[in-house]
Amino acid sequence: MRETPLSNCERRFLLRAVREGKRLDGRQCYDYRNVRISFGPDRGCCVVELGRTRVLGQVSCELVPPKPNRATEGILFFNLELSPMAAPGFEPGRQSELLVKLNRLIERCLRNSKCIDTESLCVVAGEKVWQIRVDLHLLNHDGNIIDAASIAAIVALCHFRRPDVSVQGEEVTVYSPEERDPVPLSIHHMPICVSFAFFQQGTYLLVDPSEREERVMDGLLVIAMNKHREICTIQSSGGIMLVMDQVLRCSKITAVKVAEITELIQKALENDQKVRKEGGKFGFAESIPNQKITAFKMESAAVDTNNVEEQAEEIITKADPPSEVFATPILHAPGTAQIGEGIENSWEDLEESEREEEVEEEGESEAATSECQRMETEDTSTISKDKDEPIVLSDSEEEEVVILEPQEVPNKTRTQTTSKQENTSKKTFNKRRRKKRAAR
Amino acid sequence: MAEGGKMAAGSGKMAAEAAVGQVVLPGDVLLLPARPGHDAEQLPLGSEAAPRGRLLCGPGLRRCAAGLLVTKCGLLRHRQPGGGGGAAAGGAYWVDSQQKRYVPVKGDQVIGIVTARAGDVFRLDVGGSEQASLSYLAFEGATKRNRPNVQVGDLIYGQFLVANKDMEPEMVCIDSSGKASGMGVIGQDGFLFKVSLGLIRKLLAPKCEIIQELSQLYPFELVLGMNGRIWVKAKTVQQTLIIVNILEACEYMTSEQRKQALAKLSGN
Amino acid sequence: MEPGGAAMAAAGCCLRPFSCERGLLSRPDGSAAFVQGDTSVLAGLYGPAEVRGSKESPERATLEVLLRPKVGLPGVGERSREQLLRQTCEAVVLGALHPRTAITLVLQVLSDAGSLLSCCLNAACMGLLDAGLPLSALFCGVTCALDAQGAIVLDPTTRQEQEARAVLTFAIDSTEKKVLMATTRGSCSVEEMQQCLVAAQRAADTIFQFYRDSACRRYSKS
Question: Could you report the per-residue pLDDT of A315-361, keeping only the tens digit for each?
Fold first, then answer.
């Protein structure tokens, strides 16, 4: 699908607004949109909303052999998907440039910053390690995908619990959640991306650009940082030249934003932990806001299934009994078998009638051809109806036959029919047809 | 929510008159009152003596054997026969639904974005399934020599001359007498944004409260396209943004909430 | 794991708590999240929109359904469910009103705790409703499980599905309670299947009432 084009007036207005320090949603230049985190019923599942941008994160794990050059380290795998529901321009299964760029940035932010202790994921050195897989799905695109995705990834990783394992000699036992409590991943620090959009060669900057702001920006700077003010990755794209002061200013802003977001994440994780411990309600149903008129909830509803047996019985007795006819298998050759020989050929009935009424048959056969070819239009069907009436052989009648001819009879016949008299030509034509049918 | 329980779950069959103003769902069947001729007890009164006026089956409704079949979710609306004054003598039923995607309708006035100039026509994105075409001669005073100055990315306010499901939609920027009557290229300033089609219809209704209340704030220019696009231009960026935000918020605000919000604004 | 799970298991003829939210995504033309107990599915829908060349049909709208799993890439299981969902949607969408257009329905699994296909069906229907596409009727999905004793469990959880002898999912239309789609797993007799169908039809009443109440709430301010 095509993305709605950006009009000139929107572009002009947005740039003018940036110059005046105004933003569409009333934010200041350095304001971040609201971040909302909700957890699913499973461990390691979360939805992060950054304004109207929405990302689903899910962590899963699997025991796999390690990479040969890193025998004692677990494997971290990140996969961000731009779901076609997120924006009309996203096509399923296409590795767009944007997607590759985002995936690479996520990997650099989370894997290369060594935020997860991969050595603790080793079960048997050189044989079995945990592979931690982080699936991120963009559900709605309203700008700044990378920040939302990086928050979702780290939240999902913090929320995740892997099954406990024990090693006795050669044997590896994986415990179910009932046997032993699953264990959290050991996370050293939480890197979070913060994006800056630049306008007019870096003169103006906006934190956390929205989708429309992204469409008119000149360049983008992404800084990943943890709350200890350590820069984990930094990337500038769009080909703008930034002065050092700008970058320094951005890194200071990042530090503030990261501290805020980290606090929010920890609070959200604590809340969820508390609810789970106390046996309260959790999961996505709880994250649907009650007061919104677009949302609606229903408590567990009982369905009366008392006399379903009787009703079902009634339906079955009313229904026609299944036919008792069983075809015997037919053996044409050793090693083959078939049941039945299909339905009777309806063409033969036509043949019979043809013999009786040579002339009248025309109409029927025409109807039959229209049935089998499905190419005939309504006009021809009306013609064939007309022909049910007694027909006097005439030139016009003959012409109609000739119209049909090229479909049915090869060219050779055509030359023959024209060379003969009208009446006989018709007969040969019919004969030809019959032969053809018999051959089918 | 209170009125919701009246109709049984699943297939609702009820008299069309009783359902007016209520929420209807696809699959509901609205039963039409029997024609006066069939009903012996009802005396034909005055205008009713003539065969009943045509009944218009508006958006979200389809004719079926039993009456009208609802195909969209929304509130059932009805306009009394003769109320509209003239051509449509019968009443009209339609479903007022909230949707985002626009489907071109002949005569609708919409805002299009020029995406290409192809020979004699401009291609316009109107938010439908297909781009609309607009001849460069379909502007007031345009001739082969005197072409309108339209660039790719410009906004155009025009109406549909041809719009049906099987053909490419065609737009014009003149009325039947060749006058622009407000249509044409929209100015270079101002801002364009999108709202739901339901809100646009509400705003375009005669004597719309929202527009009247807004117009008391400060002067601004406003173009409303039936395709959900709104173009606003006020004196400053700030003022334009305020209008944009109020109109966007109107989607889910009751009139009291809106009045409060506006009172707060005019107080500042 | 689930609160009140034991009570629910005792009374098999119970639907888990339902909730839904419509229009929660800003970009798609229609969107809905549907939650059944701990199972939840998000639907996003575009259309009637531009159609790509090869898929264009001069007769009707081209309906495409994409089911996205939470982990990994879509596989054979998703493909077959997409087919079932697409055929169900095609039965109610009046596609002939929008020829040469595409309707794309994307379903994202948010969490699977049993009865996933019926939750997908319900989310799809809510999505179609929210997008305002012309429909001849509504539909809902009901999953029934038959336990070892042959008792019917409506809207089963993952564990109930695993313990069940057979799991049957029906899509039921709102006008005549007819079956639009049926898929079964495991073995059951014809009588049992009819019983499940009758139970599903009764559950459908509850679900359609839920649809209606949620629609009434949605339009309560306009």
Answer: 888 877 666 666 677 777 777 777 766 666 666 555 555 455 554 44
A41 touches C: beta carbon within 8 Å: yes
The alpha carbon of residue C197 is apart from the nearest alpha carbon of chain B, in Å, by: 16
Using pLDDT thresholds of 50, 70 and 90, give the confidence band for residue A17. Answer: very high
Question: Omega into B206 within 30° of 0, i.e. cis?
Answer: no
What is the pLDDT at residue A433?
A: 55
What ipTM was predicted for this assembly?
0.91
Other CB atoms within a 10 A radius of the CB of residue C53 amount to: 5
- The helix/strand/coil state of C151 is coil
Q: Which of C4, C108, C152 sits opposite A83 (nearest CB)?
A: C108
Rg (C-alpha) for chain A, rounded Å, is 37
Q: φ, ψ for residue A416 (rounded to 5)? A: -65, -50
Residue C29 tokens read as 């033309």
Rounded CA separation A378/A234 (Å)? 69
Task: Place A198 in a pLDDT band, splitting at 50, 70 and 90.
Answer: very high
Classify the C-alpha dihedral A254-A257-A259-A263 as positive or negative.
negative
Residues A321/A315, Cβ–Cβ less than 8 Å:
no
Calpha distance A220→C86 (Å, rounded): 40
- C185 confidence band (pLDDT: 50, 70, 90): very high
For residues B253 and C219, give the distance between their C-alpha atoms in angstroms, rounded to a whole number.
12
Instruction: Find out whether A213 and A14 touch, Cβ atoms under 8 Å.
Output: yes
Amino acid occupying residue B30: L
The helix/strand/coil state of A159 is helix
User: Which residues, other chains included, contact B173 with Cβ-Cβ below 8 Å and sequence gap of 6+?
Assistant: B134, B138, B139, B140, B156, B157, B158, B159, B180, B183, B184
Q: How many CA atoms lie within 13 A of B208 on its CB side?
A: 14
Contact yes or no for C177 and B10 at CB 8 A:
yes
Cross-chain Cβ contact C70/A135 below 8 Å: yes
Measured at the alpha carbon of residue B103, what is the angle toward residues B102 and B104, in degrees to the nearest 5?
A: 115
Rounded to a whole number, what is the distance in Å from the CA of A16 to chain B's nearest CA? 8
Q: Which residue type sits at B210?
A: I
Judge whether A230 is closer than 8 Å to chain B, CB to CB.
no
Nearest-CA distance from B60 to chain C in Å?
Answer: 7
Chain B neighbors of A16, CB-CB under 8 A: 237
**Nearest neighbour of C68 by CB, restricted to A133, A137, A313:** A137
Residues C47, B1: C-beta atoms closer than 8 Å: no
pTM of the model: 0.83
DSSP category for residue A127: T
Q: Amino acid identity, residue C83?
A: Q
Tokens of A235: 């990337």
